[in-house]
Each structure stands twice: as structure tokens, then as C-alpha cells.
């Protein structure tokens, strides 16, 4: 693998960062506030961490129900 190859985790993190940045830029127009790159980075890290935690929780719910896949009911819990 070369240095330019990114794994799925890095691509997902980059997508979260981009999306958070887009949302922040849209909201700063409405709210008339300044948003720094550091704020965007911090928010992106928080969103990514929360998504990871949610994913692990969903896996545990499915495992508790003795299933190997996450179902809609796991998400609704």
C-alpha cells in the first residue's frame, strides 16, 4: 500500500470533516458568526467519536439479541 492510499476509516473521517465544514459554513451565514477551522476540526472529531460509539452500541444490541447483523429495532432502542 502506498502513502497516498487511504483506508475506509480515513475516508469516512474526511467525509465527516467535509460535511461538518459545509454545515458550519451554511450556518455561519445565517447566524452571522465567525467559525474557525479549529472549531470545525473539533466538531468533526466529536461527531466522528459519537458515530463510532453509536456503531459499537448497535453492534452490542444485535449481539445481545443473538444476531450477527444490526436491525432497525436496534436503532430504535
TrEMBL record:
Record key words, sorted: DNA damage, DNA repair, DNA-binding
Pfam families xref list: CENP-S
Keyword Kinase: no
InterPro entries reported in the protein's UniProt record: CENP-S/Mhf1 (IPR029003), Histone-fold (IPR009072)
Gene3D superfamilies cross-referenced by the UniProt entry: Histone, subunit A
Record has DNA damage as a keyword: yes
Domain of life: Eukaryota
Assigned protein family: Belongs to the TAF9 family. CENP-S/MHF1 subfamily.
Classification via PANTHER family: CENTROMERE PROTEIN S, CORTISTATIN
Protein's name according to its UniProt entry: Centromere protein S
Species of the source: Linnemannia gamsii
